[in-house]
Amino acid sequence: MALLSASAAAIEGQGQNLSTFGPMRYITVPGDAAYTPGGSTAFAATFLMELWSENVTVTWVDGFGMSAGGAKTHTVRYDVATDALLVYDLTGAEVGAGDLSATTFHLHITAE
């Protein structure tokens, strides 16, 4: 998945939300037009290095996706073992391959 295909710098440059509270980050990222099952791999190893500008250990990520109309459409979870960010529908099933570009994801990230 390339939900996080835009770098942190690009997200900040587009005026997206990036809030910092010590070891926590709250970010808003656009959905990907080509989500693949298995999620966004190397999430902490790549994307989060740009947010923290240092090596961090991600301990928790959760969040949700919203449609342009403001309805909650997805949930997001982080798999620590595979360093992957996964997207689920509201029934709890992982989303299959597809276009998530109409979805905005709001993520709460905790690291140490």
Quick synopsis:
This protein is mainly β. It has helices spanning 8-13, 43-52; strands spanning 18-21, 24-30, 40-41, 58-66, 72-79, 84-89, 104-111.
Please list the strands of the largest sheet in the order they lie side by side: 1-2-7-4-5-6-3
Cα distance spanning the termini: 25 Å
Number of helices in the DSSP assignment: 2
Poorly predicted sequence stretches spanning 5 or more consecutive residues: 5-18
Number of domains: 1
Helix and strand sequence? HEEEHEEEE
User: What assembly state would you assign to the polypeptide chains in this entry?
Assistant: single chain
Extended strand count: 7
Estimated structural class:
mainly beta
Radius of gyration: 13 Å
The shape, in one word, is globular
Helix fraction bin: 10-25%
Strand content: 35-45%
Rounded average pLDDT = 77
Largest sheet: number of strands, sense, barrel closure: 7 strands, antiparallel
